[in-house]
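User: Here's a chain of 761 residues. Predict its fold as tokens.
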Amino acid sequence: MSLGNSLSGITFSGIGSGIDTDSIVSRLMQVEAIPIKRLQQRQAEITNRQSLYAEFRSRMRSLSTAAGSLNNASAFNPIRASSSDTGVATITTNAGAIAGTYRLEVSKLAQAHKVSSGAQASTTAALGLSGTFSVNGVGVEVTATDTLTTVAQKIYSANAGVTASLINGGEGNAYLTLTAKDTGAGKAIQLSDLGTSSVLSSLGLVGGASGIRSAVTNGAAGFAFSSPTTAVSQMLNVAIVPPNTVQITVNGQTIDINLSTDSLDSIATNLNAAGAGVTASVESVTEGSSTKYRLKIVGDSGTPTFTDSENVLTALGVLQQGYSSELVAAQDAHYSLDGVNLTSATNTVGNVIPGATLTLLKANETTPEKSTLTLSRDESAVQSKVKDFVSAYNGIVDFVAANSKFDKDTFAAGPLLGDPMATQIENAVSSLVFDNVAGLTGNYRNLAALGFDFDSAGKLSYDEATLSTALNADPNAVGKLFRTAGAGSVTELTYISSTDKTVASGAGAYDVVVTQAATKGAYTSAVAQTSANSVTETLTFGGALFGNSDYVFVIESGSALADTVAKINSDSKLKDLVSATIEGGKLKIESKKYGAAGNYTVESSLAAAADNSGIGQSMPGTYSTGLDVAGTINGEAATGVGQYLTGNAGNAKTAGLQIQYTGTGSGLVGSMTVTKGVGTKVTDLMSGFLDTVNGQLTTSENSLQDQLDQLGEDIQTLSSRLTVKEQQLRYRFAKMDEMIATLRSQGDRVSQFVASLSASK
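Assistant: Prediction complete.
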């Protein structure tokens, strides 16, 4: 029996021999484990270096960010805005702001329209009213069991751009209030009882005579609806509006209208055919991101007179019955800047002052509230960015120095002592700081000219006064010392952007060769239009320019070609996408966007017409396809999109360089000079180190991780071997102990045998 083996987790050793074999095995294994401890020590060193590299990466990112903030065209000409009376108005700036001083006077603030009902019995009692009314062109149906609360809920659910609220002042003192969600005179709440309904008038929301809701020159404009061709009742989402044909009177002339079947287009056609001395049209308007349509009626000789029948014109928003209790009138903001009178539908005004947003807060119609608005160059912002750059660079210097110390007494070395990457970064950045920026001329070609210098510890410093003097003398030249800049040799070539892969041209320039200038897609009718349209015509636009969705444009009967051109150029959507002109009596519609992205299609409802009833008679006419610019930069391949030409990835020098060519010629059209300032170069340098795939720091980090992984595997292998070796040693010592015990037992028996022999004599 082996007494040295394990039994239920308990080990007995040396029982037979009296030798402490456990201690012997333990000490032998400690000697055998020395290589593992050395590997674990190496693991700790690598883990520590990984932590250092992580901190190093963070500091390099900080330097890259600080340098990047200087690589901006506006970084050295920032504008700070202030208001002398922030109670009257506040002002903020963004890119594009320029210095200036403005005298502001505010006489009115924009207001959201608010109306109230008359007093009702309670908010929960049945009103006993039945009928249909519209709110901002959305129908609401009321039944006899509805209460003031349920009416408010129905108005809310209609999503008509108003907020319905209740005031419960006790028995006989309950009110319904409606508040427009948007401010401005054009956002007055449209309310109309439909047909013979009297719900609104019974509630006391409307009452009295009707008048023009939205006046235009010599006429009126209606409410904006979603479609020119859909029946009005369908857009109101009600069945009774009234359902039958009724008559309205315009300038004493009666016109039949049926809102259940008539659209805005057909109503305009009926009005034009009635001989009432008016011109009716459907015009498109933009509301937010949507295009809507409204009926416009203009008198031939002054504003027409209207007589409504069963609230037809009121439902269309042409007329509006008076509000019984108008709590807040719909109102635009009225203000002036340097004596120029202006209005705004909101109290937040952008683009009136270039690059600035103005918020109006206080007004007085009798004695306008005043404030002086000042936009001035903010030198402190420049100094702050430069300080951040210096601080970030010095943070790297301090970090490397702290981790590169050498103790001459103990010979202990910092983990970054002699680290090639740390040395490379310091040397590369320091050389960039004082090298001349290739391609720059004049007084400011390196940072030394701005008061930058190194101290004895290798840390960067600069003189604020010297930088301030340079900023006042030539802020653009100072900016070019830090940022990327480009300049074309001709006005048709404009620098747009570049990447860290773009190489500066230095004192030279990159030739630009164009093989195809960018063009715009354009449609031209096949024949001239010599007379006005005899019928209404619909043009349907589509294609890439229109987001590959259809846009319908209506040309009313009686429109001459000049009228069509004017209407296209004023349409809320088309005016931003295409431009219409007359060339040789023919209609030409040209995209406003160059290249393939500006191509479009157009189809007419009269394309197959046999007579010359409209411009569609000649469609599709001829269409010239818009082409993207094509060519090379510095002899290297480039990709064109519209007028923009971008150097392909992988190019030796022009990768990522984007320029704009606005000319029409081809061949060698000019050259482009590209300079890269210190901020750009530092950012590019950091990108090379920090790239998460191929960056030098990433490579070093990956190498450390590979070493760490290999050490882990080696330790595991050695540990497994030691476990086996320990088991073997314990087995052998157990066998030895067992053999000694056996020998002792045999010795004892021999001794007993000898003793018995002696005794027998």
